[in-house]
Amino acid sequence: MANKKILKASSYYLEDVLGLDLDKRAEEGKLSFLLLNQPPVCDYHCRRCFMPDYRRKNYDPKKALALEEYKKILADAKQNGILCLEISGEGEPLLEKKLPSIIEYADKLGIMTTLITNGNTITEEQIKFFKKHNVTLVFSLHTLDKKKYELDNCNEGSFDRKIQNIEKAAVIYKGTKIIKKGFEVYRLAIHATLQKDNVEEIGKLKEFCHGHEIFFSIAPLALIGSALKHKEIQFSDGEKIIEDIVWQGDNSIIHSHSSSKAFGREVCGTAYYGLNIGWDGYILFDAHYGYEIGERNMLGNIRDIPFREAIEKQRKYSKILFENIVGSCPPRDIRGKQFLEKVLKGKIKISV
Ligand code: SF4
Prior knowledge:
By secondary structure, this protein is α/β, with parallel strands linked by helices. It contains 15 helices and 13 strands.
């Protein structure tokens, strides 16, 4: 039987390959993930973007975390048992000048990094740097159709660049796939968002990935942010349940086995066992969900709260969050939106 594929630094990797129980770790006060959002700046305008347009327009660089602040957060994270750093937004991480220093410092502390990028400006030097510093590199790609791709992100010429950059990464990352505990462990992946106009392409995308020894991940469109105003990419029968889609990929990069102890179902490990921090230091439920929570300082700012205290609070509000939704992924959960509204209206208390 073929080895099961798994993405390095995902919850399943920590659980199935490293044999860790993320729930037990959390009970001992150790979160496993830290999500550090980068500023809401991007060279694309994807219709599916989690980030609502006003976040880009209102961006004030003076409010952004400084490099020394990122380093303190990482050092505190290490001290509190965090194993993985995820950088997947808010905008495009490659456009952030501090990114290499953040990744290098995390590596120095022995923290694995997952970087999710549109890859539009990535260079050979950067790819080699990421490979050297224990980065699991994930390119977002939802179609192999040039016209559709560039229509979606409003960036002419981006498709050919993207494919060239992915092929460059496949060459440089060649040999990073390992077999461990019967699993094929990947450090290079493509993540596709399933939307109304790419349903028939899933097989081709998977084939493209396997043809380049790349892990294939997929999740359905989340009806938040920019996606809300693009009816043309929304499914006519409403939002897709992530569990119906995610297994069309090589494996899930979000679910966690350990979380089923707490909820009787698997939920997102990076959200439930992770501390999510916005580019301005405000604490969020999840890297891509509920930016309003940060705007209203409802969970505090990491500049003002001791890291230990931030973890204790996270354990409480993340339990309230997942007890109030039905699925595994808040931004893709109908109850997730209702929960957010109730929190913002003060009908559900999260000030812990
Ligand atoms: S989805 Fe990512 S690449 Fe696309 S506009 Fe949003 S931040 Fe940029």
